[in-house]
Amino acid sequence: MSSIIQLLPDHVANQIAAGEVVQRPASVVKELLENAVDAKATDIKLIIKDAGKSLIQVIDNGVGMNVTDARLCFARHATSKIRQAEDLFSLHTKGFRGEALASIAAIAHMEMKTKQDQDELGTHIIIEGSKFVSQEAAVVPKGTSFAVKNLFFNIPARRNFLKSDTVEFRHVMDEFQRVALAHPNIHFTFYHNGSEMYNLPAAGYRQRIVGIMSGKTNEKLVPVNEDTEIINIQGFVCKPEFAKKNRGEQFFFVNDRFIKSGYLHHAVMSAYEGLLKDGCQPSYFLFLQVPPNTIDINIHPTKTEIKFDDEQALYAILRASIKHSLGQFNVAPVLDFDRDANLDTPYHYKDMEAETPTIQVDTTFNPFTDDKTNQHYSKASSGTSSYSSSGASSGSSYSGSSFSGYSKRVEPTASWESLYVGLDTENPESIESSPFTFENEEVTSSLFNEDEVEQVAQKTYQIHKKYIVSPIKSGMIIVDQQRAHQRILYEQFLLNMTVNQAASQQLLFPLDLFYSASEMKQIEELKPSLETTGFVFDDSKTDHLVVSGIPVNITESEVSLVIEQLLSDLQDGIPANSFSQNDTIAKSMAKSLAVKTGSYLTEKEQDNLVNGLFACKDPNISPFQKPTFITMRVEDIDKKFAL
Questions:
Q1: Most confident of the following: 129-143, 299-313, 451-465
Q2: Residue 319 phi, psi dihedral angles, 5° rounding
Q3: How high is the pLDDT of residue 109?
Q4: What does each C-alpha distance from 172 to 27, 176, 186, 327 come to in angstroms?
Q5: Model pLDDT for residues 437-446, shown as the tens digit of each residue
Q6: How far apart are CA 270 and CA 257, in angstroms?
Q7: 368 and 275, same structural domain?
Q8: What is the CATH number of the domain that holds 487?
Q9: In degrees to the nearest 10, what's the CA dihedral of 579, 582, 584, 590?
C-alpha cells in the first residue's frame, strides 16, 4: 500500500502560512513597517492605493541588504533576529519568525529594491506568487523599498472576504498609528491615493500623539510617569471629561510593541473609578518597559497578545500610577478638611498687617436740644469731626469735611405733643377709616365642574423612572419609556431622511468639533445622510468639523454625543447600501437622543410619549427588536389575587 502522507510543496505551505500572517492589507502594512523599524530607519514612507488592495509600498532609509540577504529574506523561517532558542526570551526587535515576507510573496506581486550604504549598486527583485521573476543589479538609494501589488491575486476567495475600502483603510490607519506612536523618533509619512494623510516629523511622545490624533488632544493629556524595578511606565491618560463612548484611543505598548490586554485595561478603568459617566471609556497612551525575559510574546500569530510573569504586580503599579497622576494634576477630587478656599487671602495682602481706623466722635452732641445747639454742633462737626483711615494699599484718609454734605439740619419739634391731640387710644373705632375702597372678590370653589375634573384626571403614571403605566379598557399597559422613545425618534429620523424634509435650526455660533483623521474620513462619507436629518455643515477642515445647523429635536450640547455614538456604531464599516446607511444613522441617533432610564417625566410628557408610540407604524418593538410595552388584563390581575 502506498504512503498517504507527503510533504507539502513550498508554495502551498507559504499560502497556508499566509493565512495566519496576512489577513487583510493592514497585516501587510504592519509587517513591512516593523521590518523598516528593525532596519534602523529614521525616515519611513507608506504609500497605498485602494485601501491597500492595489498597492502597498513601504520605503525606508535603513541599513539595507546585500545580494545574498535580498534573495534569502523571502525564504521561510529565514531571519536575522534570532540565532538560538534562548533568543526568543530576550527579543529587542519586532519580527523574529521569518515568515512575513515569504507569506506575502506567496499571495501577491512583490517588488523589492534594496542597497547598503557601502555598496555602489543595489538589488532589484520581482516575485509573483512565490516565483522569482527577475533579479538584477540596479541604481537605488540607500535603504529598502517593498511594493506589494494585487494582494490575494491567486486566492480570489480570500479577496472576496475583504471589506469595503472604507473599512480596510481604517484598519490600515490603525496599524500605521500603532507603529508611529511606538517610535516618535522616526519620521513617518503616509499617502493614500495620492493624498497625504500624515506627515509626522521626529518628536517626543506628546507631540507624536497630538500629531496623530490632531484636534485639541494636547489639552486632554495628563502625563503618567513611574519607574520601579519591575516596570517603567511613561505616557499619558486623558482627563475624565473627554471620555468617549468608543474605545478607539486606547493604546498599550510593551517594549515598543503594541499589545491588547483586557487585564491591564481593567487596571486603568479601576483608576478612573467614580470619575467617568456610564458607558464612557477613557483614552490612554501608555508605554511600558519591562525586562524582555519576563514576558512571552510568541503566544499569538500577530504578536498583539503577550504573557507577563507577574501580572498582579503590574496591575497594582499601573493602577496606582494613573490614580496618582489624576490626583497630582487636580483631575481627581481631593479631600482636604483643613482648608477653606473661601477664606484664602489675596497674594498682595498676605504679609500685610491690618490697621485699625481712628474715629473721632463729638460727645457733646444732643439731638434733642434747641436750634442754637444744633447750629453749634453743625459748625463743630465741619471743623473738628473727622474719619481717618489709613488704607492698606493707598494710605488714603477721610476727613470730616468730606462728610459735611451728609449733615442735615433737623427742624425743632418742641410741640410734638400736638400731633397726638384728638386721638382716643381707648376707642380705636374713633379713628377715621382709610379712604381706600376694595373690590369685593368672589372665591370660587373649583375651576372645573365635577364632570370636567374627571376628564382631566391623570391617565398615566411613572414607576421607578423607568416604566409608564396607562389604564385601558381591558386592563393596563406598561411602557418602557426608553425603548418607546427610541421607536418614536427612529421613525421620525427615517421619515425625514426618506422625504428630505427635515427642519433645521441655525446656530448663532457654529460648533467646532475635533476628530482624528480616520474619524473625519468617516464623517465625510456620512455627511449627505446627516444633512437629510437636519444637520448643516460648513467647510470642514482636516482635523475638525464645523456644524452651523442642527435638527430641531437636538440641543447644541447633544451634537457631539450624537456624532460620537454614530462613529462608535459604525466601527464595523459604513453600509454601502443607501437605505442601510440611513437605517444605521437613524438607529444611532435614536439611541443617543432617547430619554434614558432614570429620567423623570411630567404627566404631559408621559401622555405625549404613550400617544406618540401608538402613532408609530410598528409600536410593538424598538429599533433594536426589543418589546416596547406589555399588556396586563384585569383577568390576569384577578388571578394574582386569587392565589
A1: 129-143
A2: -60, -45
A3: 92
A4: 8, 6, 19, 36
A5: 555 555 444 4
A6: 24
A7: no
A8: 3.30.1370.100
A9: -140
Contacts 24+ apart (CB under 8 A), 531-534: 532/496, 532/497, 532/500, 532/502, 532/582, 533/493, 533/496, 533/497, 533/502, 533/585, 533/586, 533/589, 534/496, 534/502, 534/503, 534/504, 534/505
The predicted model gives 375-394 an average pLDDT of 45
In the block, cell 513597517 appears at 33
pLDDT tens, residue by residue, 471-513: 888 888 999 999 999 999 999 888 888 877 677 888 888 888 8
Tell me the backbone φ, ψ of residue 399, rounded to 5 degrees: -95, 165
Residues 6+ away with beta carbon under 8 Å from 375: 409
The fraction of the chain above a pLDDT of 70, given in percent, is 74
CA distance 154 to 625: 42
Does the structure show a pLDDT above 50 at 398?
no
Give residue 450's pLDDT: 47
Q: Dig out the grid coordinates for 449 from the structure.
A: 365642574
Please indicate whether residue 216 or residue 175 has the higher confidence score (pLDDT): 175
Are 363 and 399 in contact by the 8 Å Cβ rule? The answer is no
Q: What is the pTM of this model?
A: 0.67
Helix (H) or strand (E) run with residue 60 in it = strand 55-60
- Range of the structural domain that residue 257 is part of: 214-328
- Contacting residues for 136 by C-beta, under 8 A, at least 6 apart: 123, 124
Does residue 25 sit in the same domain as residue 156?
yes
Instruction: For residue 285, report the phi and psi dihedrals to the nearest 5 degrees.
Output: -135, 95
Number of domains the chain contains: 4
